[in-house]
Design brief:
The chain has 336 residues and is an alpha/beta fold. It has helices at 20-24, 31-38, 54-68, 93-100, 117-130, 156-159, 207-213, 228-249, 267-277, 288-291, 298-308; strands at residues 3-12, 17-19, 42-44, 78-82, 108-111, 136-143, 165-174, 180-188, 196-197, 225-226, 259-262, 317-324, 328-335. Helix content is 32%, strand content 23%. α3 crosses α4 and α8 crosses α9.
Length: 336
């Protein structure tokens, strides 16, 4: 069995910065309220006319990752694209990326696991490499949240949280057993699916039906719903569990972690996990303050920035962990 390792990382965020003060002009909120509850100071939103889409941002991040991996786009054997906000209902963004990168008939698949999407996609790529089926796999997490948020008082508790952006990683085959991605761990608990969800448009809530049922525009189901306190409670429990699960699998302890990169859902969740695991500020990387929650893109964006800033070095034990809609959660244990 082969080992897989991350050979290149890249990220992209739109140039349009949206501050908390900007949002306060659209809804009854303010900078202090948002920072106190989420830790977010600003986020990036796609701006009309800037040419960005979920797939386009994914391509921009992918080109950087491919260049840093020192391979050609034609060396990519598989594309795995994680998102909850695809450009089209179908087909998925994976095939759009294949076309935009001009890769000849490369297989592409999409992963729909929301905030845990990148961990799930990374696990899929890791297994394909470990079995020997593929050598180089491009993994992308990209989100365009801003076009589907309710920027009124009705939606403020959710809409202040999310931002747009993309991150990418190139996984490649390695013969160095014990280095690279050591293990991945995936879970789900579907009984809580509706606690963090978007009900329509879907095959259950087509647009004509939504309009007919809500002529006044009340209780429109095509905006995200989140039971914030319930999600927070489950997140802090599952984050801790899946991190310990991964460490135990590899004979490691919390003290062995050089860098923990949690999904950037809420700074308060990350701080709670850090305190619970008794990790120092140097052992945890957060950038939600700048970008908000970019769902499937949050871990690859943060991982890229941590690496670019020299916070991840050869031989380091790096732990990735996520929790989100589904509920789904997962972790990846990596020796860099």
């Amino acid at each position: 069995m082969y080992q897989s390792k991350i050979a290149g990382l890249g990220s992209y965020v739109p140039e349009n910065v949206v501050t908390n003060d900007d949002l306060s002009k659209l809804m009854d909120t303010n900078d202090a309220w948002i920072q106190e509850r989420t830790g977010i100071k600003e986020r990036r939103h796609i701006k009309k006319g800037d040419g960005n889409t979920t797939a386009v941002m994914g391509v921009k991040a992918a080109k950087i990752a491919i260049e840093r991996a020192k391979i050609s786009k034609d060396d990519i054997d598989l594309i795995v694209f994680a998102t909850l906000s695809p450009d089209l209902y179908f087909p998925g963004c994976g095939v759009q990326v294949q076309e935009m990168l001009d890769i000849n008939t490369c297989p592409a698949l999409d992963v729909r696991n929301q905030c845990s999407g990148f961990i799930y996609a990374l696990s899929v790529a890791d297994q394909f490499i470990k079995t020997g089926m593929y050598k180089n796999v491009l993994v992308i997490g990209s989100e365009n949240h801003s076009g589907g948020l309710d920027f009124t008082n009705r939606g403020r508790s959710v809409s202040v949280i999310f931002g747009d952006g993309a991150g990418a990683a190139v996984l490649t085959r390695s013969n160095h057993i014990g280095q690279g991605i050591l293990s991945t761990h995936l879970h789900s608990e579907g009984k809580h699916a509706m606690e963090l969800s978007l009900k329509g448009p879907s095959t259950l809530h087509w647009v004509p039906e939504i309009i007919a049922e809500n002529p006044q525009g009340d209780d429109i189901p095509y905006y995200p719903y989140m039971n914030g306190q319930f999600v927070f409670k489950n997140a802090i429990e599952r984050f801790s569990e899946v991190i310990h699960e991964g460490l135990k699998e590899n004979g490691l302890e919390v003290k062995d972690i050089n860098m923990l990169i949690p999904h950037q859902a809420n700074l308060r969740i990350s701080q709670f996990i850090q305190k619970k695991l008794k990790l120092s500020d140097d052992q945890v990387f957060n950038n939600i303050q700048k970008y908000g929650n970019t769902t499937a893109a949050s871990i690859p964006i943060a991982l890229t920035e941590a690496w670019e800033q020299g916070k991840i070095k050869d031989g380091d034990v790096v732990v990735l962990a996520a929790f989100g809609s589904g509920f789904t959660w997962g972790s990846a244990i990596i020796e860099w």
